[in-house]
Amino acid sequence: MIPHKTARGAAAMERLKVFEGVPPPYDHVKRVVVPQALRVLRLKPGRKYCTVGRLSHEVGWKYQDVVARLEERRKVKGAAYYARKKAARRQLSDATKSAKVDEKTKEQLAGYGY
C-alpha cells in the first residue's frame, strides 16, 4: 500500500505510469523472457497463483475476451514468423555448405569474422 495522503506517497503516485497493453516505444520491439521471473521456476508445485487479467475481470474489467482473442492472433503471427525464420536459417545453412570458396577467400573472410 502506498501512503497516498502524505507528500511522499502523493509524489510516488504522480510518478506512477500504468499502460493497458504495450506502450508505443516498445510495441515494435522484440519481446524477451526473463527466466528469473517465470512462474514455473519461482513457485513450488501446487501453490496457488493468480493473474492480473483474472483479478481485473473479477473487479469489472470488460476486455478479458478481447485480450484473449488478440493473444491468439499474436501467437498465430509468431508461429508464422518462426516458420519463416527457420526456413531462412535452413536456406542460409544449405547455401554456406554448398558454396565453393577458394582458400584465399576463406582466409580473408575469417579475418573479417565470417
Helices and strands, with pairings:
Elements: H1 7-15, H2 39-42, H3 52-58, H4 64-98, H5 103-112
- Which stretches of 5+ consecutive residues score pLDDT under 50? none
User: With helices defined by DSSP (H or I, 4 residues minimum), what is the helix count?
Assistant: 5
Q: Output mean pLDDT.
A: 93
* Approximate strand percentage: under 5%
Give the CA-based shape: elongated
Sheet with the most strands?
A: none
Structure, explained:
By secondary structure, the protein is mostly helical. The protein has one domain. Helices cover 57% and strands 0% of the residues. The protein contains five helices and no strands. The termini are far apart. 0% of the residues are buried. The model has no long low-confidence stretch (mean pLDDT 93). GO terms for molecular function: mRNA binding; structural constituent of ribosome. InterPro entries: Ribosomal_uL13, Ribosomal_uL13_sf. This is Putative 60S ribosomal protein L16.
What structural keywords apply?
single chain, 114 residues, mainly alpha, 57% helix
Short characterization:
This protein is an all-alpha fold and 114 residues long. The protein contains 5 helices and no strands.
